[in-house]
Every structure is written in C-alpha cells, then in structure tokens.
Amino acid sequence: MADVTTTLPRVLEQLTRDPGRPRVTWYTDAERVELSGTVLVNWVTKTTNLLVEELDAGPGARVLLDLPAAWRALMWAPAVWRSGACVVLPDGTGTADGGGVDVVVTDRPEAHTTGVPLVAVASPALARSWPGPLPAGALDAAAAVMTYGDTLGWLPATDATAPALVTPTGSTAHAALVEHARTVAGTGSAGSRVLLDVGSTADRGAALAATLTTALAAWSDDGSLVLVGPGLDAQARDRLRRTERVDADATA
Predict the structure, then answer these.
(1) 220 three-state secondary structure
(2) Separation CA 170–CA 26 (nearest Å)
(3) Which of 91, 112, 160, 234 has most Cβ atoms within 10 angstroms of its Cβ?
(4) Please, what is the Cα angle at 48 between 198 and 208, to 5 degrees?
(5) Are the C-beta atoms of 70 and 230 separated by less than 8 Å?
C-alpha cells in the first residue's frame, strides 16, 4: 500500500504507479466516464501546458473555475495548481470573490464579460469542440487541450505560501492544499473507492469544493473517486455502489 502523499506533484505521480486502475468514475443518468490514473494525469499535463504556454498561468495568477462538479473539473483544478496558480471557486451566482481573476474557465462563456482570457469547456464526454459560437477571443478547450504535449514543459516555481484554492469562505495555500483536503474530506481507509454525490447540491462553488477536496484526499491515500451527478434515483445509486465496489462515503 502506498504511503500518504502530501504534495500535489507526489499525488499525481502516485496516480500513475498503477496505470490502469480507475481513479475517477463519473456518473449521471446520461453518461458514465472512467479515467485511469495514467489518463487523468495525461489530461492534467496537457492542460497545465496550455495554461502556462497560452494563458501565462503561474504564481500570482488567479483562475476562476466556473464548471460543474464533474470529471472535467478534476483535470482543470490540478492543472492550475501544477502551474503554480490559484483556483478561485464561484459563489452561489457563479462569479468570483471581490479580488478579480486573470483567467476564466467555464462551461457558460456567455455569463462572463470580465475582459480577461476566457476558456470555454464543453461538458459532454465525447465533445471535440465547443458546440456553437463563442465570444470573440474565447479559447475552445476541447479543441485546444489536445494540441499540447503529454510531457510537462517549463513550469514556474510554485510559491508554497501563496493561495492555491480560494472559496467564498476562505483560502488555502499550496503547501497546505493536500492536508486541507484530508482534513475536510473523510475518505475512509487507504485505497478506498470513495463515493461523493453532488447531484442535489445547487451551489456550484460548494459542489466544486467538495469534489476537489474529496478527490485530493482519496488520491493522496491511494484511493479513487466515484462522483455522482444529477439524474440518478435511489435505486440507481444503490446499484452503482455495488457495481463500483464503493467502500466509503463523503458528504457534499
């Protein structure tokens, strides 16, 4: 059994040690998406390269992550952290806190008129481009991420004391990110398959915070996340608990 890891780079490294093992399984009434550790880290790497090379992400940069609490958020948040930048989560209205942001990553680009770089993220698992027109200058994530390398390029040095995660209720530094996740998200024993149901959580920021902290806590203990979105009734949730061999629960 792997040791508990306490930094994001080590957490990501641990995910690839058992390359075919599922680390994220995402369920709604419409789709099921499963990512092995290797596939997940590959997406994170590509996305990190895009953030650094295309959007100048790095220490001091603040990235608003206005996305559903779903599997794509688990690509984008670690990529922001890997670049040394800070993830800012939306409040109940989908906006940032009062400090302003440098990049917006969202599935609803029409809702943002901030004047900063805008990245549009299509939600469907098989999307290869944004399904429709985009605001002028917006970056189509589905098309762009695939063009970046599978190996990390140059990265700025992360400031361990700088904020890594900002929510409407507080902030967490890079050095404390994994330990914070382990403190707020009970995820059972080492290697657990942890279920988190965010399907009924109306507050996007709260659902994202629960998803990110639960995933980090589970991964740091060599576990995996079964993330349940909207549309599943009680019978379907009970069935997936059995089929996915869930052995711990977290609370959104």
Answers:
(1) helix
(2) 27
(3) 112
(4) 15
(5) no
Domain ranges of the chain: 8-249
Amino acid 2: pLDDT = 40
In the structure encoding, which two tokens stand for residue 82, read together? 């890997």
The pLDDT of residue 98 is 45
Task: Output the six-digit token pair for 218.
Answer: 């589970």
> d(Cα 177, Cα 182) in Å, to the nearest integer?
9
Beta-strand runs (E) in 67-137: 86-88, 103-106, 118-120
Check residue 115 and give its pLDDT. Answer: 86
Contact 86, 61 (CB under 8 A): yes
Residue type, 219: W
Exposure of 193 in the CB half-sphere (CA atoms within 13 A):
16
Give domain 8-249's CATH number out of 3.90.190.20, 2.60.120.10, 3.30.420.40, 3.40.50.12780: 3.40.50.12780
Q: Which two tokens stand for residue 164?
A: 């890594």
Prediction pTM value: 0.94
Q: pLDDT under 50 in the chain at which residues? A: 1-3, 97-98
67/247 Cα distance (integer angstroms): 27
Beta strands in the chain (DSSP E): 22-27, 32-36, 62-66, 86-88, 103-106, 118-120, 139-140, 163-167, 170-173, 193-197, 224-228, 248-249
pLDDT at 187: 67
